[in-house]
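User: Can you write out an input/output pair for a complex, sequences first and structure second?

Assistant: Here is one pair. Inputs:
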Amino acid sequence: MNINAPRGTQDILPGSSEKWQFVERQLADLCRRYHYKEIRTPIFEHTELFQRGVGDSTDIVQKEMYTFEDRGGRSVTLRPEGTASVVRSYVQNKVYGLPNQPTKYFYMGPMFRYERPQQGRQRQFIQFGIEALGSDDPAIDAEVLSLALNSYRELGLQSLKLVLNSLGDKESREAHRQALIRHFDPYRDELCSDCQVRLDQNPLRVLDCKKDRDHPAMETAPSILEYLNDYSRDYFDKVKEYLDVMGIQYVIDPNLVRGLDYYNHTAFEIMSEAEGFGAITTLSGGGRYTGLVQEVGGPETSGIGFAMSIERLLMALEAEGIELPLDDGLDCYMIAMGEEADKVAVRLTDQLRGAGVQVDKDYLGKKMKGQFKTADRLNSRYVLVLGAEELGNQVINVKEMASGEQKEISLDAIIDYMKEQLAGGE
Ligand code: HAM
């Protein structure tokens, strides 16, 4: 019986993993420049964290979590997103009490959602995200937006759209909530069963419903922007001003509702406008949250962040035809003929690696010609040949593949010689 990987998961094989490494390095460097430091949290958490953090009425909690009982009878969940875990860690480690606030984190790792797999939607995906906790300065919102956009732009992506909204503070949202209930209540029976529940629990979610998208009441639904109180409107204006100062363009969409419950004030998504990107055009999303730290047992603290999946980032690179500058060659291939020479080759290979040179050799007992072929296929810059004759003369033959130039170097000097050659050629 063949056993395949579970639906919605994928193997990332050499040929592709180099792209992942490149992108991950680039993102980590971007975070270094914005002064966000890496945090690593567990892949599973107590189920309650996501029920309280992400929100009981969200699709994620209702339908998509990988939840199971461990052998101790506790309910645990594979994390569907990173924010709740980061906030849990921030509270548990009392990071809010440390000097040097705000606390700025980034994270990268697998997240799990039981969704219907399609292009850009998987059951295990890798998220890169950031969270800035402990400041409600609108300039941080703008900083997060700038980092989010630059994580795409610095890789060469151009067909991007930043969609922005404000969900206001508690008071504004409550006023909007009442307006939404008043608006949708007359059509209650015409809405899908999920939306009938949402109307009571969290009417904002109705605006995000895929089934009721075309209901006429959707278009005339009251906009949150009409219900922002002075503080919320002022906050949103300042975020926009900072974006203008940085020359960041955006589109305001009062219907942008995020799929998680913890947001207030700034909410945003970055979309790909590249042709051929696919049906799902959202590259990443995020926003500000205020109640979350308290929900997890910490002091009232505000945070803002965003997350993207690397899968969708790579899809966007492909859609825009961007080739990453990957180096998939090999520095050196060691060829040895004969048992004695092979022993010396094993030693030299080991020493070269210790000296920082990338080296590989034959392990299949191939003939000389076959080994040369392998070196060629591996795109090796140098081939080192050690036969009985070379061994007798205590030298090794070094061939530079591009020029075909060959030299005999003494065995004593070969490590330094190769180090020099490769350093000079960079
Ligand atoms: P989210 O919108 O649920 O937000 O997910 C953020 C991003 O994760 C999406 O835009 C998408 O790139 C990726 N993503 C989500 N689900 C899938 C999937 N099934 N397959 C592939 N990629 C997926 C959050 O997760 C929030 N924690 C973001 C945030 C951080 N808000 C504040 N801080």
